[in-house]
Amino acid sequence: MNPRPKKIAVIGGGPAGAVCAERLARRDREVVVYEGRPGWDKPCAGGLTPALFDEHPWLLELDSKCNKVERATMTFPSGKLDMSLKRKLRIIDRRELNGFLQRRAQNAGALWREGFARRIEQHRDRIVVDGEKYDFVVGADGANSTVRRMVGRPLRREDWAIGVGLYVGETMEPRLVVRMLPDLAAYAWIFPALDRCSVGIMAPVGIATRHEMLKRVRGLANDYFSASAVDSAESFAALLPAVRGGLLFSAELVGERFALVGDAAGLCDPFSGEGIRWAVTSGSLAGRAIALGDTSLYARALDENILPELNASSRLVSRLMRRGPMMLAGVLAPRSGTLESTLSEFVSGSLAYEQLKRTFKRRAAKILRQALFNFYCVQR
To answer: What is the value of pTM for the model shown?
Structure first.
């Protein structure tokens, strides 16, 4: 990819697009961001993991806008676990996050077009967006990406999930709530931000109707909030990438005149639904590679820093999101401090998927001994 592109179109102004645009603008590239939802909110829980701040410490500027969560309640079909998290999660209103990242990109010199890109064309020597010529295009336009379809790499139906939920205008103690739902191969959540709570479910497309999922969400919300708050809550629904049936490959995500980042690249954890970390990281990595005129750097960075973890999640999710493992976890976790500690590490993002299987194997005997001992003591 030489010479270095001078004029770049970024389609989508969420975290991935905004961070990519900022990186490019700071390297004196002409960057135009097409975003049809200025100041937009996104249907998601707004969870920011410790790993995100480890990789991007400049995001700590947002610390005062975040609710710090250090406890979690997990409910399984066979039991319930209250636990402390090994590292605190931060939860933010997505309007705050998106606005912050947009301002950074604009302050760096990126131009913001308030409107959706209506027509994107790929030619041998240029990209044309709504009649305007560019040297390169970045697809940051979500799971149903127009740019991804343009380059002939759309996500398969089995690689999509749907997120359905409510924004409840009441607050609660800073606690993450997770309810495992094996019949949906999913879990329901409550993520408390500072001034409202996100209550929702992310499940594979086609496993349940939106109405059925929303009914489950309301059931969870009614356990924690007033009836009036639940009745007046704003509902949301959105398609999300969740590559469960296959693996992600960097070769599909970058080309001579395009790069896909964030949800458009399918970079969302199919187990937890976490996408913000991967959006920010992919946007940063892509921006640097494009500015240097070598998109192979982005492909290599994906292979080294992002895809191993997401592909490990893709391999594990079908095994973990079943009734058997959930029932077993519900029985053992309240009776084993070692399993509780392991789940605490995992939920807070301190234990990577690639480590998870090895960790369980190493700790399995101790977990069983603790559970049997505590069960025996209770029986006596």
So the answer is: 0.93
